[in-house]
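Quiz preparation item.
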């Protein structure tokens, strides 16, 4: 796999997702990654540390530049736990669990993040404002309700199917409720 091309494509992809998700400083972004799928294989069968490093570092650098925190989801062998920085876990009072990700138990994304983060820890759950799923890793459980899937500029990264999620506040009320701030003031 051409890792320089992969980095360029990842930059294009994450720039588009950041824009469409309207990410703001202090928010959390979850990444699910199957390097096996990116490499044209089946999820969980051919993890690539190099692919994980390129994708995670590229996304981490873009998110860090705008003050968004990255959480990297692990595979099913770690119950989809997430690798985050300890200060984020402490700030959000997240349940820290004891495990160190490996290439075949956690995945290439978590292994790359573990090496990249200052003080990495695994947590069981998180509520992110948005996320990117590279290779159909099922990140929806970690994005806050209400989740809105959207199509990023690229539908594939390497051989992996790509989807993205953002969130919006829940709509509550009934027929009298207004969801547009401008309309609410006109009616009042």
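Solution:
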């Amino acid at each position: 796999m051409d890792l320089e091309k992969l980095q360029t494509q990842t930059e294009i992809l994450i720039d588009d997702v950041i824009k469409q998700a309207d990410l703001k400083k202090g928010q959390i972004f979850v990444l699910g990654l199957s390097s096996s799928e990116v490499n044209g294989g089946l999820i969980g069968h051919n993890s690539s540390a190099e692919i994980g490093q390129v994708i995670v570092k590229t996304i981490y650098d873009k998110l860090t530049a705008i003050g968004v925190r990255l959480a990297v989801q692990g595979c099913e062998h770690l119950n989809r736990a997430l690798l985050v920085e300890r200060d984020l876990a402490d700030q959000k009072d997240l349940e820290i669990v004891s495990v160190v990700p490996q290439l075949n138990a956690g995945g290439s994304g978590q292994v790359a993040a573990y090496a990249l983060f200052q003080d990495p820890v695994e947590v069981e759950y998180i509520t992110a404002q948005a996320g990117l799923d590279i290779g159909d890793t099922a990140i929806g459980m970690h994005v806050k309700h209400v989740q809105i899937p959207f199509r990023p500029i690229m539908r594939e990264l390497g051989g992996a199917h790509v989807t993205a999620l953002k969130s919006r506040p829940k709509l509550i009320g009934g027929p009298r409720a207004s969801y547009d701030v401008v309309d609410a003031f006109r009616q009042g």
